Amino acid sequence: MAAAVAIGLPTPTRASLEPEPRCAHCDSPVSAVRVDLRSERQFCCDGCHSVYAILHDAGLEGYYAQREPAALERKTAQPSRRKFEELDEPSFRDSHCQPRANGALTTSFFVEGVHCSACVWLLERLPRVAPAVVEARYDLTRSALQVSWDPTKARLSEVARALDSLGYTPHPSHEANSSAEQRKGDRALLLRLGIAGAAAGNVMLMALALYSGEFSGMAEEYTALFRWASLAIATPAVFWTGNVFFRGGLAALRTRTPHMDLPVSLGLLAGYLGSAVNTLRGHGEIYFDSLCTLTFLLLVGRYLQRTHQRHSAKASDLLHALAPATARLVDGEALREVPAHSVTVGSIVEIGAEERVAVDGVITLGSSALDTSLLTGESFPEEVTVGDRVHAGTTNLASKLRVRVESAGRETRLGRLLESVESTQRERAPIVRLADRVAGYFVVAIVTIAAFTLLLWWQLDASHAIDHTVALLVVTCPCALGMATPLAVSAALRAAARNGILFKGGEFIEELARPGTIVFDKTGTLTEGRLELVSWSGDEALKAFARAAEANSGHPIARAFQRSLGATPLRSSSCREYPGGVRAQVEGKDVLIGSRAFLTDQLGSVPAFALRQLQTEAQAGRTPVLIAIDGEVRAVAGFADTVRADAAKSLKRLAELGFQLEVLSGDDQRVVDSVVQHLGVPVALARGGASPEAKHALITLRRSNGQRVFMVGDGVNDAAAMAAANVGIAVHGGAEACLSAADVFTTRPGLDAIALAALGARRTMRVIRTGITLSLAYNLVGIALAVSGHLDPLWAAVLMPLSSITVVTAALRARTFNPRKQP
Amino acid sequence: MSIIFLILPITLLLSAGAVAAFAWATRSGQFDDLETPAIRLLHEAPPSLEGAADSPPAKPTRGSN
After folding, report:
1. Residue A40 sits in which domain range?
2. Residue B55 in contact with partner chain A when CB distance is under 8 A
3. What is the pLDDT of residue A532?
4. Of A642, A669, A692, which closes a domain?
5. What is the mean pLDDT of residues A468-478?
6. Residue A759 has pLDDT above 70, yes or no
7. CB contact under 8 A, A187 and B32
8. How many domains does chain A have?
C-alpha cells in the first residue's frame, strides 16, 4: 500500500518532468516505488541492479553500447541464484571436464538467455568477472560456452555462479565430451555436402550443353565426351556422397522399418544404372544431372537435421553428483571422511546441519528436519527423529544426525532412481517420423507403379520399357519429401529456441503435436516451488517480531518469512533453532515460532482459537505455523506454495488444444486438491502422495496401454517419469538432472512456454504436412508423365528443383513458434 | 571446337582443386562454427589476445542491494 501513497504524493519536479524512468540494465519501465532520486540510474529489480554493479565493477559497461535494440524486446535473463554445488563433485569432473595445458580444465556449458552479439561479447569476457577463468569461447550455433579455468584458483561452482550472476544460467553439457566424435561426424557430412554440390554444378553444366545440343544438333563425338564426363563425375557423387542413403536404405530393409532412405536409394540406383548402361551403349537418356542435384539437396536436408540435435549431459552423470561423494564415518570416537559408495551396511555415519545425505539409512541419534524436495517433490521439510529413514540426496536442515547405513552408492533409492532413468532412456523405442511413415507407403506405391509401367511398355514398345521405368524411378525419387521435414523442423527449432523452448531433436516436435495426456508435477511446475506467507490471523504488528526472529535461519519457513515480509528494524538475539521451530529474543520479548507439536512441547498447550485456525489452514492445504510472544500464542500464519501466475491460463490453452490434463505430485493429497481448485481448470486426475517410483510406474503403465503421455516436471523425482513418457518436458529453473532427462525444456519462467510449445508443434506439423503434400503432388505429375512415356531428362531436371523450391519456401515462410500469432 | 577435349579436363582439374581446398578447410575446422565469428569480428579487441595477461580490475563485488 505504501506504493499507492508514494504515487499519490506530489513528487519533486525533476522526476515529474522527466519521462517514465527506465531500467539501466534491461530498459523495462521502473515502477514508482523503486525510483531512487539520489541515483542517476534506475533499476526495475534487484537482479538487474546486481548485474549492472558486476558489469560496472569489471569495467564491462561496453555491453550496453553493443546491445542491439531488438534484443531489449526479450526480457533480459535473471540470475537463478542457484549454488551449482553439484559441479564440484569429482564424478562431474571426471565425466565433463578435460585437462588442458598449464593445469587448466575445460568444460562446456549450455547457456540460457543469449540473445545478441552483446551477450556473446560479455560471455567471452568472463575472465574479467571470474579471474580464475582463463578463456571463455561461445559457440552460437550450439549455444555452448567453452570455459577453461584454473582449478587451483576457483571451483567450477564459483565460475558457474559468476555466469549466473550476469543473468546467463549455465547448464552442464556434454558438448565438450562428445565434441571430438560429434565434430568429426559434422565435418564428414559437410565434406560430402560440398563434393555433392561441386559434382551437381559440373554435371549440370554438361547437361546444359547436352540439352542445347538436342535442340540445335551436336556432333556425335562431343555428345559422347559430355556423357562420359558426366558419368565420371556422377559415379563418385552418387556412390560416395550418397553412401549415407544406401546405408540407411539397407538398414531400413533389414529392420523392416519404413524410412525415407529406401525410396531414395531405389531412385538413385535405378537412375544411375540406367544412365550408366545408356552411356556405355552410346544412346538413350541419361539422368546424371538430376541424380547429382538430388544427392546434393538431400544432403542439405540431412545436414540441417544433424546440426540441430542437442546434446545435453547424461542424466545419470548428474544424478551421481546429487549425493555427496564422501560420507563421514563414525569410527569409535573418531570421524573419518570416506568415499560414499564404499561405506558398508550397518556402519554409522554422521550428517551435519545444512549437509547433504550421502547414504540411505535409519537415524540412531538426533532429530532434525530434512529437505526431501529433491527426491519426493514435497515442498515442506520433513521432521525426522530416531528410527526414521533418511535417503541419499536429501538435505539435513537443522541439526546433527547419526545414521545407520542400510545402503550406499548405486544401491540407494537415488541410485536406483537414476538407474531407471538410464535404462528407460536406453530402451525407449525410436520415434517413427511422419515423413518416414509416408515413405513406407510411398516405396510400395512406387514399386507397384514401376512394375506396371514396365509391363505396360513391354506390351506397347519393348525397346523403351526400361527407359520409361528408369525415368519413373528417377522422377519419383522423393527429393522434396526428404527436404520438407528437415527444413520445416530446423526453422521451427530456431524459432522455438528464440522463444525460450528448446527441443533436443526435431522428432519431439512431431511427437508433441499429436494429442494425448499431459501429466503435470505440482511443486515447482504448477507452483512456484517455494513457500510464501499467504494468510495471517492475529495482530499485524506481530509480523515484524516474527520476521526478526526468523531473520538468520535458512529453514524454508524462515526464508518465506524473509521474502514475504521485507526488512524490519527490530533486532533479534539468542536465536536458537529446534526441530519444528525457533526461539529468539526480539526487543526484550521471548518469541516462539513453530509447528503445533513444537509449541505444545514448549508451552504445554495451545489455545482454542489457534486450534480452530490450525484446522482451517490444514483444510485449505496450507502449512500452519504458530507464533507465540512471551509464552502466549498470539498469531497463526499459513504458508503455501503459490500457484504460478500464468498456470491457469496456460492449462486452459492446453485443454483447448485437446490435451487431457492430469496432476501427479509427491505432495499431500489435500495440497494437490487445493492447487487444482485454485487453477479452476478441469483436470482428469489429481493424485498426491506419488513417490518418484510411483510416477514412473504410472507413466509406464499408461504407455503400455497404448496411451500417449507427456510429463511436465522440474525435479529429480520426475526424471524417471519424464524419461518414460512420450515426451518429457522440464520447466525453467528445474533441477539439472531433470533437464537432462527431458526431451524439451523451457528457458523462460512460467508455463505459457509449454502451451506455446504444443501450439508451435502443431503449426510445425501443419507445415510438414503441407510440404509432404506439395512434394507428392509434384511426384504425381512426374508419374503421369513417366507412365505415359513423355518424361525426358529435361523434364526431370526441371521438376525436381521446382518441387524442392516450393517446399523450401513453404517451410521457411511458416511462422511456427511465434507467440503473438493466434491460430 | 575440338579444343573442348582439352578444356574439359582442365576445368575438371580446377574443380578438383576447389574440392580439395574445401576438404582441407572442412577438416581443419573452418566451418565448425559459422555464426559466432561473424559477431566476434565486431568486438573491438579479440578476448583471446587479451587473454589472462590482461590484468583484471579490482575484485568484483556483489550488487549493493
Report:
1. 2-44
2. no
3. 84
4. A642
5. 85
6. yes
7. yes
8. 4
Domain with residue A535: its CATH number is 3.40.1110.10
**Closest-CA residue of chain A to B65:** A46
The CA distance from A355 to A372, in Å, is: 12
**Does residue A284 fall inside a structural domain?**
no
Q: Are A635 and A694 within one domain?
A: no
Is A27 among the catalytic positions? no
Select from A134, A198, A229 the Cβ nearest to the Cβ of B18: A198
Tens digits of residue pLDDT in A372-386: 877 776 667 788 888
Mean pLDDT for A787-808 is 83
Q: How many residues does chain B have?
A: 65
**Cα–Cα distance between A684 and A171 in angstroms, integer?**
34
Q: How confident is the model at residue A193 (pLDDT cuts 50, 70, 90)?
A: very high
Cα–Cα–Cα angle for A761, A505, A685, rounded to 5 degrees: 55
**Inside any domain, residue A587:** yes
The region of weakest confidence among A190-194, A604-608, B31-35 is B31-35
The complex's ipTM works out to 0.72
Among A762, A783, A798, where does a domain finish? A762
The 3 state secondary structure assigned to A640-690 is EEEECCCHHHHHHHHHHCCCEEEEECCCCHHHHHHHHHHHCCCCCEEECCC
| Residue A519 shares a structural domain with residue A659 | yes
Task: Please indicate, yes or no, whether residues A638 and A648 belong to a single structural domain of this protein.
Answer: no
DSSP assignment string, B38-60: HHHTTSSS-HHHHGGGS---S--
Helix (H, G, I), strand (E, B) or coil at A331: strand
Beta bridge partners of A584: A591
Q: Residues near A73 by Cβ (< 8 Å), separated by ≥ 6?
A: none
User: What pLDDT, on the 0 to 100 scale, is given for residue A310?
Assistant: 60
Q: Note whether A704 and A621 are same-domain residues.
A: no
Q: How confident is the model at residue A820 (pLDDT cuts 50, 70, 90)?
A: low
Q: Are residues A559 and A621 in the same domain?
A: yes
Residue type, A335: L
**Does any CB of chain B come closer than 8 Å to the CB of residue A225?**
yes
**What pLDDT, on a 0 to 100 scale, did the predictor assign at position A733?**
74
